[in-house]
Amino acid sequence: WIIPIEWKYTESxxxxxxxxxxxxxxTYKIETNPHKKPKGEVRLDRYSALIKNSEQLRSIPSFVExxxxxxxxxxxxxxxxxxxxxxxxxxxxxxxxxxEEDIKADHxxxxxxxxxxxxxxxxxxxxxxxxxxxxxxxxxxxxxxxxYLIVDPKNLMLPIKDSYPELxxxxxxxxxxx
Length: 178
Prior knowledge:
The protein has one domain (5-147). Helices cover 32% and strands 6% of the residues. The chain is built from 6 helices and 3 strands, in the order βααβααβαα. By secondary structure, the protein is mainly alpha-helical.
């Protein structure tokens, strides 16, 4: 097993066009190096085929009604979904190419650590996803729901509370008791 973990603490995300990683350097023609492809184009080249061939990611998320869904401007290129997409593809590639990897795995579980109190993230409605909230948006992109789990950091770290009280106290001050 491999377990990719995405840990959110105080992030906030914008879903306007400037937050679209597939259009970076394309839409606004702002690129730092004129001799290189725009970053958005590089990202589309890098990830589009992987998404289409993914066993876990839907090429067309379930909230999309257009059969001609284009990855440019899609939910896969807006945070936090961009990072989740990349981690999902990484896990799939690790498993598909396990004979070439130092860490050999047949399965993965993608854990998304988010405080229950972070309603700004959890309840945000994402325009590229028909105003669905974060969890519903991401789950609409997934084939196998059992491979994705949202966990509150307090629940994740609870097993260390008695064995490592100093660490628990630090984590509680840092993450749980605001």
